[in-house]
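C-alpha cells please, single chain.
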Amino acid sequence: MLKYSSVSSLLSGWERGGEMAKTGQLGCEAAVGSLTPAKKKEYKVSNRLHEGKRPLYAISFNFIDARYYDVFATVGGNRVTVYRCLEQGLIAVLQAYVDEDDESVRLWNVHTGICILIFAGAGGHRNEVLSVDFHPSDIYRIASCGMDNTVKIWSMKEFWTYVEKSFTWTDLPSKFPTKYVQFPVFIASVHSNYVDCTRWLGDFVLSKSVDNEIVLWEPKTKEQSPGEGAVDILQKYPVPECDIWFIKFSCDFHYNAAAIGNREGKIYVWELQSSPPVLIARLAHAQCKSPIRQTALSFDGSTILSCCEDGSIWRWDVVQS
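Here you go.
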C-alpha cells in the first residue's frame, strides 16, 4: 500500500517550496523535474535474453502474493511467458501460454474465474483501452486510459454486492450475472493524444501520452455531477525521445520511484515523492537500441526489467555500495 504520510510530505513540500499553491486552486504552474541525474542509485545490466523475434509490449512483476515477488510475466502478441528472477542476475522460465484477445475493461475474480463487471457503455472509452490501475486504498475505484485520449475513473461501490457474490457462486462461471458499469465518475482530458499508461499515486494520478513526459495530476470531481470536474496539474517528469505511443512506465510497490524507457533503449528512473521531481538514474547500454515498450520495477526497486520491440528482455540490478 502507498504510504500516505509520504504523500502528505510531498504535498507539504509543494506548499512550502512555492512550486504549487494549495491543491484546491487550479491553473498553477507545475513543478518540472531536471534531467540531471542525482545519482542516488547506480544500476548495472545483470542479464539479457531474447524470447524471439516477436516484439514484447508488456512486462510486470507480481505484487499480489508475497511468496512470488520475484516472479514476472511478459506479453508479446497473445503469448504470455512467466519467469522468475534468481540470484546473481539469473532468470528462469516457469511457463508460457497463449490467450485469446480481449479488448474490454473487465473485473475478474481470479479465484473463481468469474467475470464480475464490464466497464463499457454510454460513458465508456471510445477506442481501445491501454492501461488500468486499482486505487491503492479505495477498493471501489479504478482508473483506465486509452486511445480516445482520456483517463477515466470508475467506481464499483454501487456494484460491490456482485463482487462479494462472486466468491460464493457455486454455479458455472458463465452463468454469473455479470453487470455493466456504463458511466465513470470522472473523465479527464489531460492529454491531446493516446494515453498509454496510468497509475494512482495516493489520490493523485500519473499518466503518460506521447509528449516526452509523465504527468502527475489531481482529479477534482463534482459530487453532484458524475463524470465532470477539473484537473490540477501538479508535476511533470520529462522523458526525452519518448514521443511514440505504447511506452509504459512502472512503479515499485511503495511508489518511491518510477522507471520508464524511450524509443532509443534508454531508461529514466524518477523519484516520485519529491518536489520538484528528482531523476535518480539514467540507464543506457550500447547494445540496447530498440524501443523499450514497458519497464517493471521490483517490490523494493532494486531490480528493473525492460521489454523491447526487438523481443529482448533486459535486467538491471542496483549496485550495492
